[in-house]
Design goal:
Elements (H helix, E strand, L loop, with lengths): L9 H16 L2 H6 L24 H4 L3 H7 L11 H10 L1 H14 L10 H20 L9 H22 L2 H4 L1 H6 L6 H27 L11 H25 L3 H14 L22 H6 L2 H13 L1 H6 L8 H13 L5 H4 L11 H24 L9
Helix pairs in contact: 6-11, 7-8, 8-11, 8-12, 8-15, 11-12, 12-15, 12-19, 15-19
């Protein structure tokens, strides 16, 4: 039953008034030291009971703050949690990561008239420019069967890693209000940005499938290998995203240097030309030791895995896909070196040349790069967990 103040007796109102006034007179530190109740040596008025020692603060009693915090179970609110606890907390935020990524992906092109079409149109326009310059004007496509699909697949796959690297490098500085307002694992932010790029990659892959089929590539069981190839690339992107997020938060000039690094990486990853055939073509003064190094760089590895999965022409023309035949390899080398338009039949003779890295080894390198990037990137980001949001 609820009793109104009108029905209360004068004695009851007086007691309530005294308790209210006494609560305001009791210092906060005294009430905390008393354990929040009268059982801690205080009477109803917040004064020490007879026979009880006076309640003093740590500085008065000569007790260090660390000892005082340990005695009362206090800990810093921004302390870095252990690795396993951090991972568990990150897993609990998986729904937040997906919702944040989806919302950002939708809002990214809301002001553009074409909207989400730009997600596919941007890399497609880049591929068109590259094909015009390098495929038609500079004639770099010599000896590469189905160069259009070769180029578009390389641009789309590299764009996935490039976009993940660039966007995560500024995620901490762009999310300072969110970081300062809420307590959550900061790794959720670069992870969400990688998910945004993965969602855009799904749309790009749909366009890539149309282009590959339109250029004459058949559908085979090898297409299923695209799934593990993109999964490994996504894991790799998460690792470098965590790495880039910390660098971008602590080094202001990193964002200025990043476009030059990405452009250099693009030209070294076989997006526009075949690295496997680089030292075989006459007129290219490339040392033999440089070719395998270029082939196993992470971006080139994932590009090769995707190309070998969806393009039969790449599997059949890759060096080492057929038993070595010096005469046939020389015939292909001479044709590519002296003719601007190599007959389609001769384009596949590169398969008789020796390979620097086998197809199976590309999968080993893909797994290794993904694991290395994830472990190094996670620990590099986690060690600075308490520093984000202070700038």
């Amino acid at each position: 039953m609820v009793q109104s103040p009108r029905d209360s007796s004068p004695t009851q109102l007086e007691v309530l008034r005294e308790c209210s006034v006494s609560d305001q007179k009791v210092p906060l530190r005294t009430r905390l030291s008393a354990g929040g109740s009268d059982a801690g040596g205080l009477d109803a008025l917040g004064e020490p009971r007879a026979g009880e020692p006076p309640v003093t603060s740590p500085d008065v009693a000569g007790e260090s703050l660390a000892t005082y915090a340990t005695r009362y179970g206090l800990r810093p609110s921004a302390a870095r949690p252990p690795v396993l606890a951090y991972l568990r907390e990150l897993w609990r935020r998986r729904h937040f990561v997906m919702a944040f990524a989806t919302a950002r992906n939708i809002a990214m092109y809301t002001e553009a008239k074409l909207g989400q079409i730009w997600q596919v149109l941007t890399p497609l326009l880049n591929a068109g420019v590259y094909f015009l310059i390098f495929g038609l004007l500079l004639n770099i496509n010599r000896g590469i069967p189905n160069y259009l699909a070769f180029l578009v697949s390389g641009v789309f796959v590299f764009n996935f890693t490039q976009r993940a690297f660039i966007t995560t490098s500024s995620v901490v500085t762009e999310s300072l209000p969110l970081i300062r307002a809420l307590q959550f694992p900061r790794a959720a932010l670069p992870l969400a940005y990688v998910v945004v790029e993965l969602q855009q990659m799904f749309l790009a892959m749909a366009v890539l499938v149309v282009i590959v089929l339109a250029t004459g590539e058949p559908i085979t069981w090898y297409w299923l290998l695209v799934i593990p190839a993109l999964l490994l690339q996504t894991i790799f992107n998460i690792g470098i995203g965590l790495f880039a997020a910390r660098l971008g938060a602590q080094v202001n000039d990193f964002s200025q240097l990043l476009p030059f690094l990405m452009r250099t990486w693009l030209y070294l990853s076989g997006v526009l030309f075949s690295i496997q055939n680089l030292d075989l073509v006459k007129g290219t003064h490339v040392p033999g030791w440089a070719v395998p190094l270029l082939e196993v760089n992470p971006a080139a590895v994932y590009i090769t895995l995707v190309r070998n999965s969806i393009m039969q022409s790449q599997r059949l023309s890759a060096p080492g896909s057929k038993p070595y035949n010096a005469a046939m390899c020389t015939q292909w080398t001479n044709a590519v070196g002296h003719n601007t338009a190599v007959p389609v039949k001769l384009q596949y003779d590169s398969a008789y040349c020796a390979a620097h890295v086998s197809v199976l080894h590309f999968w080993y390198f893909g797994i290794g790069w993904a694991a290395l990037a994830l472990v190094v990137g996670f620990f590099f980001f986690w060690r600075a967990e308490t520093r984000y949001g202070r700038g």
